[in-house]
Amino acid sequence: ERDLLWKVHVRPVSDGSILVSFEDISGVEQAELVRREFVANIGHELRSPLTAMLGFIETLRGAARNDPDARSRFLGIMAQEAARMSRLVGDLLSLSEVEGSERRPPAGQVALDEILAGAVEALRPVAEEAGSTIDLDLDRAVPPVNGERDQLTRVARNLVENAIKYGGKRIGIGLHMATQGAPEARISVTDDGAGIAPEHLPRLTERFYRVDAHRARGAGGTGLGLAIVKHIVSRHRGRLLIESVPGQGSRFTVCLPALREAPLDAKNG
Ligand code: ADP
Hints:
7 helices, 9 strands, phosphorelay sensor kinase activity, membrane, phosphoprotein phosphatase activity, transferase
């Protein structure tokens, strides 16, 4: 799969011969390469809004100084660019926080139906603005999962935001137990939007991977949403499944191990 990289050590030995040894550094180099690429991407992503803002500042100081119309238009664009940078920085911080938390198992017990209902409530205005409707189909009998509320809310929001951003007019959000195997809660977010061609599916959760960078940026995406989702799901010992038919829509399913036991308060009351 990965390229093998060897570090070659050549050392003279006391009897006059030379000792050659090989050290496999593929793993280290690979990690270093990924890190360098990530930093370069961040630089690139931050530079474009900054360049735009610097350009408008120049214009506002010069040609457009006494033109109130141009001034308000340019300030509007600058505000948008600043908001884009702010989203990017916010997502970078979330990603680093999520990665930092990955070794600690989540401590709380979380009712997924509440999380989903809350996330949808928060996003209804965004959906309405985009002309999308959201249908909820939540099985209230799904037991809670071991999890961190804020992180799982983040997962739900990112998936629903994507469903809206990538053209879903009817978005379905489901919560059900898996019908076979270990007890597993399944959250599904289904849309009837643009869909994703199969060759992109394996790379979708990579940082800054976008199917159509222009469209994604225009929709306000940072390219980090699914990377964040992937890390949170893996911290919760879950799985993320992505299915899509281009032109018909996509379904993102998050499977999380469910606690067999009903929560304490439900037992008592
Ligand atoms: P972005 O901020 O660009 O939305 P994400 O990590 O959330 O970044 O998603 C990565 C890419 O996956 C998107 O740019 C888009 O091409 C694709 N994608 C994600 N969700 C959907 C969806 N529901 N329908 C179609 N494409 C999607």
